[in-house]
Amino acid sequence: MNMAQLFEKKKQGKELSQAEIQYFVEGYTTGSIPDYQASSLLMAIRLLGMTDDETFYLTKAMIESGDVIDLTSIEGFKIDKHSTGGVGDKVTLIVTPIIAALGIPVAKFSGKGLGITGGTIDKLESIRGLKTELSSQEFIDNVNKHKIAVAGQTGNLVPADKKLYALRDVTGTVDSIPLIAASIMSKKIASGADGIVLDVKCGSGAFMKTEQEAQVLADTMTAIGEKLGRKVVAHISDMDNPLGKMIGNKLEVVEAYALLKGHMDETHEDLLEECTIISSLMYQVAAGVNEPEATAAVKRVLEDGSAAAKFEEFIVAQGGDLDDIVQKDTMNKVAVKAPAEGTIATVNALLIGEASVSLGAGRLTKESELDYDAGIQLLAKKGDHVCKGEAIAYLYSNREIDEEAMDKVQKAFTIA
């Protein structure tokens, strides 16, 4: 078996066997298959696709390329969730303490952000003192004691995905549903949870631009999870508009904490609605209850303050300083104003995300340094009426704010 045979077979639209896919993943992970051969096969997959069986074999081979985390010493049904990424998506910060407050253990491994999609680990690391690098024992002890832990991915968790994703990122092969599905599900399965809720975003600020594409990705990932013995549920949500009012690492933590404490004047109903749906699905999967019962339970822990208390407990348990969850007031701050009077028809998530990166809230490369305080506050959302000259957003940064970022944010608002 060699890579030339695999190229030829894939070029002819034939299905690769499990042994052939295993050969490719093992060879590329260990370095015996060079980048140029791997990128050729990835491009063939991007252009010709993969069958369900091929995608499953790829996922399985990627899982087997490294460690699989053993969470059996954590009591109860372990639930996890994953978002395919979006602008202002701080859902993990809100739903994990909600579920933990309901007595369900949440053992979550998250990543850092790249481009316009923020990473949960970056948001948590914006809190002074908070540790996201936990030993296996620390992680397990925290979940058993507090019902919640969120940590960065371990060094040898799915190493095949780390290498393949880095190659896909520079070879134009990121936007392939089989490759996206295998990448996400290999990490989720290797992370050891019993059940997974997938939040698949679609729209201008997401990988999947249409609902049809998002549904195919959701179905593919669900099928993989079920074949590997996990309970998996997928939900498709809008990412044409940013989620909530805040975009940026510390800003999103501040908004998440405000929502949990019931301060709805500091957040937006769209974020509460999304978090209620995802929390309800997580509770349904873990506890085996129906949707009305799960939603009622979620609303109860939000209203009685136990979800907010669990968030505080979780932050302190990982070394974070609760007093640091405040918006810094010494940054550069610029208002973006409405160019006309009317009703906001949409706020383009892609443009808002790009502007936030230029302010320092996101990475252009893995080596980029973040400004944890930087970001954007949306003062107007879809459906709001604005007057000409009224402030519709604030831009924050510890660096100089340029005209390009301001123009991009203003253009993001479509006023009807």
UniProtKB/TrEMBL annotation:
It catalyses: uridine + phosphate = alpha-D-ribose 1-phosphate + uracil; thymidine + phosphate = 2-deoxy-alpha-D-ribose 1-phosphate + thymine; 2'-deoxyuridine + phosphate = 2-deoxy-alpha-D-ribose 1-phosphate + uracil. Coiled coil: none annotated. Belongs to the thymidine/pyrimidine-nucleoside phosphorylase family. Residues 343-416 form the Pyrimidine nucleoside phosphorylase C-terminal domain. Keywords: Glycosyltransferase, Transferase. This is Pyrimidine-nucleoside phosphorylase. Catalyzes phosphorolysis of the pyrimidine nucleosides uridine, thymidine and 2'-deoxyuridine with the formation of the corresponding pyrimidine base and ribose-1-phosphate. InterPro entries: Glycosyl_Trfase_fam3, Glycosyl_Trfase_fam3_N_dom, Glycosyl_Trfase_fam3_N_dom_sf, Nuc_phospho_transferase, PYNP-like_C_sf, PYNP_C, Pyrmidine_PPas_bac/euk, Thymidine/pyrmidine_PPase.
